[in-house]
């Protein structure tokens, strides 16, 4: 009996991996998991407590006691949540607490999972791995438009600075850094809209599975 299909979609913030992963999940009739929400929820719990997201003990406790309700919060996006998520994601105890949760989710019935270490750490055996990228300028523009649509008053330059800072922190951390798996197919969405990105991803997937 073959293992359930897991499709790993990794990449930096605002590269379009979430939109793509949700569409792939619908296409293949698989569950979808935004693993970044796990880290955002941990960071948000710490912010609520007035705790430092860089504090290992408090962050590990928050990760170990995370509930589905934490993932449903409406305040898991934005610069403050981004910084807190990046901080807790660099803590080994947090990643260890959330790792088996993510693996069990994928093993249950298969899944499309998006994050930063799905193809390298969570499911290195995944048969399909995509690494979704775009230029920092285009990613900042997308994130800025999203935030403006939500009524968040912030300048484009500030959004780009936040993204670049998070890229640096995510790429430099010692545990599960943001890096493409050796066997991942890279998809650059800089000049692609959602439909074109999906079409390109499907071509890469068909090439990978020989369909």
Automatic annotation (TrEMBL):
CDD domains: CMPK. It comes from the Bacteria. ATP binds at residues 11-19. GO terms for molecular function: kinase activity. It holds the Pfam family Cytidylate_kin. It catalyses: CMP + ATP = CDP + ADP; dCMP + ATP = dCDP + ADP. Keywords: ATP-binding, Cytoplasm, Kinase, Nucleotide-binding, Transferase. Its EC number is 2.7.4.25. It is an enzyme of class 2 (transferase). It is found in: Cytoplasm. InterPro entries: Cytidylate_kin (IPR003136), Cytidylate_kinase_dom (IPR011994), P-loop_NTPase (IPR027417). Residues 7-205 form the Cytidylate kinase domain. Belongs to the cytidylate kinase family. Type 1 subfamily. HAMAP family: Cytidyl_kinase_type1. This is Cytidylate kinase. The lineage of its organism: Bacteria, Pseudomonadati, Pseudomonadota, Alphaproteobacteria, Acetobacterales.
């Amino acid at each position: 009996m073959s293992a359930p299909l897991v499709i790993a979609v990794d990449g930096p913030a605002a590269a379009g991996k979430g939109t793509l992963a949700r569409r792939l999940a619908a296409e293949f009739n698989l569950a979808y998991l935004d693993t970044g929400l796990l880290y955002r929820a941990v960071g948000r719990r710490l912010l609520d407590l007035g705790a430092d997201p860089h504090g290992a003990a408090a962050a590990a406790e928050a990760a170990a006691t995370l509930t589905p309700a934490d993932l449903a919060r409406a305040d898991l996006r934005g610069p403050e949540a981004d910084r807190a998520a990046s901080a807790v994601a660099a803590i080994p105890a947090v990643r260890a607490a959330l790792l088996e949760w993510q693996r069990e989710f994928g093993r249950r019935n298969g899944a499309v999972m998006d994050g930063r270490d799905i193809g390298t750490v969570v499911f290195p055996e995944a048969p399909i791995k995509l690494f979704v990228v775009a230029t920092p300028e285009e990613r900042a523009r997308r994130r800025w438009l999203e935030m403006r649509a939500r009524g968040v008053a912030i300048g484009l330059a500030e959004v780009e600075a936040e993204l670049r800072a998070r890229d640096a922190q995510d790429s430099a951390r010692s545990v599960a850094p943001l890096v493409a798996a050796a066997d991942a197919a890279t998809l650059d969405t800089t000049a692609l809209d959602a439909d074109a990105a999906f079409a390109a991803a499907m071509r890469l997937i068909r090439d990978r599975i020989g369909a």
